[in-house]
Every structure is written in C-alpha cells, then in structure tokens.
Amino acid sequence: MTDDGVIRYRQTRNHSTLTLTPDRTSGILINRPSEQVTAPAYLMTGPNGTAQLWRAQAVQDAITRCLRKPPCGWPAGWAHLRPDASIEMAPGGFPWTTPDIYTAVPANEPDQWGAPCGECKSPIPEGDLSRLWPHADGYACICWADSTQA
Fold first, then answer.
1. Residue 18 has what DSSP assignment?
2. How many C-beta atoms surround the C-beta of residue 46 within 10 A?
3. Which tens digits make up the pLDDT trace of 129-141?
C-alpha cells in the first residue's frame, strides 16, 4: 500500500499487478495510524454497544494491532477512515467468524483523563469491559477492571 492509499497486489513475479485505487468519497484504508488518526480523543464504541472515551494514542495502538500481519498473508484486520474523520475497524477474526467491529468518532478531549493504570499507565476509561482490547504488543491489561468494581 502506498502513502496515498493505493494498493498494488501481485502474487508472484509471473502474475500481473492489480491496482486498487481508493474511493475518496467513501474514505480510505488506514495504513499510517500516527499520521491519519489526528483528533485528540475518540469516542470508541465496541461490538457490544458500550462507548468509552479513548486518547488518540490508544486508537492508534488499536489500529496498529488490527494491521499486524500473521506469518504470511494480508493483515489480520483493517481500519477505515471515513470522510467525516470517524474510524471503523476490526481486529480480525478466524476465517469462519465475523470480526468484532469497533467505531471511533472524534470527540473533545476532557480536562483530565483520570488516574492512570498502575501497570500499563493508560487512563482507566481506555478499556472494553466486555472484551479486553490488547495493547499493540499483545499485552492485555486487566488491572483497571478491579478499580471499576469498587
């Protein structure tokens, strides 16, 4: 994928190249999260309908996780940046299951994010109580779940 979102696909040197040009009116696939995800905060809605406020860094980390490639083949998931600056993404799933879709809408950044987690240093609101969202390195912090039960 080039910087402007054009995908050129060829299986081997003996196959012709297929070029896929994005339709800018419907959005583009994200391939550079740190440059394309620019709002200071996003209202993230998970597959169960729960909405939580996340920092831009947390959304970028989640998209990075979506785009991580397995040992061979295409990325496990995808992220789509819409013209209205909202984001739809899926971390992937097994070939026989539907992936969980997450939607992020740009939001105003709060005055304070709240206390950071003791282990991962992320603010407590950044987490999906029904399905932990693993960090980009695959580590899933569960310590914030204990503080919300108090």
1. E
2. 18
3. 444 565 545 555 6
